[in-house]
Design goal:
Shape: elongated
Oligomer: single chain
Number of strands: 3
Strand order of the largest sheet: 1-2-3
Radius of gyration: 22 Å
Helix content: 55-70%
Order of helices and strands: HHHHHHHHHEEEH
Strand content: 5-15%
Distance between the termini: 60 Å
């Protein structure tokens, strides 16, 4: 397939026609093809990542007017995660259009989540430079439509949510300590304590260390929720 036909196909999938086709080409050039970072898609990926975050934050801010900073951060992190970005890239078969080095063509690079996630961010950066913020916004809201609404409780586990919230508040991340392990080796019970730099603590039990840690983190989150109600 010649490059003009490939670009036309991809533009149809994006729902955006580039005025400057070189921008689209640059967004598709993987570092394995050209090692000069000014000639591959890394700069556009860097910029596109920030444009994507701005568009999603703006959407979340208006769509969820009663959401606190913690919830907004959780939503943002899920929507702009590398996992979500790679899923978006796969949905438009972006890997098919990537321009790779010879060795990378035969090493699975085209389907790698990190590569696909970076490439879709580079495409967003290219659209921003070609058509401005509003065109980039249209692209993101179109491609991310099914990923923008979800239950926050399904988005992140209690340990991660607790850490996210503490980081937003500028606090140190929590520490977890096993207080007790009891029961037979085939069915142990763990008692774990989570401690915050503020001195706040919670203790919980679980059949595994991770389960006990998640339950302890949830106790802190529940306490915060009760205090804010």
């Amino acid at each position: 397939m010649n490059s003009n036909k490939a670009f036309s196909q991809l533009e149809q999938r994006l729902g955006y026609v580039f005025k400057n086709k070189l921008l689209l080409k640059n967004a598709l050039i993987h570092s394995s093809h050209l090692h000069d970072e000014t000639a591959n898609n890394e700069r556009l990926e860097f910029h596109g990542d920030r444009v994507l975050a701005l568009i999603v934050v703006d959407y979340m801010f208006n769509e969820y007017p009663t959401a606190g900073v913690g919830e907004l951060a959780i939503r943002l992190n899920k929507v702009v995660s590398r996992k979500t970005c790679s899923e978006i890239a796969k949905s438009i078969d972006l890997g098919k259009y990537l321009i790779l080095g010879h060795d990378a063509k035969h090493s699975g690079t085209r389907t790698r989540a990190s590569v696909l996630g970076g490439a879709i961010e580079a495409v967003i950066g290219a659209v921003y430079h070609d058509g401005g913020l509003e065109e980039a916004r249209k692209l993101v809201l179109k491609l991310w439509q099914s990923h923008l609404s979800f239950e926050v409780t399904d988005a992140i586990d209690p340990k991660s949510e607790l850490q996210e919230r503490l980081q937003i508040m500028g606090k140190e991340i929590p520490t977890y300590r096993v207080l007790k392990k009891e029961g037979p080796s085939h069915a142990p019970k763990f008692q774990v304590e989570v401690s915050l730099s503020s001195g706040e603590k919670a203790v919980s039990q679980g059949m595994t260390k991770k389960e006990a840690e998640r339950k302890a983190a949830q106790l802190i989150l529940d306490k915060w929720k009760e205090a804010s109600d």
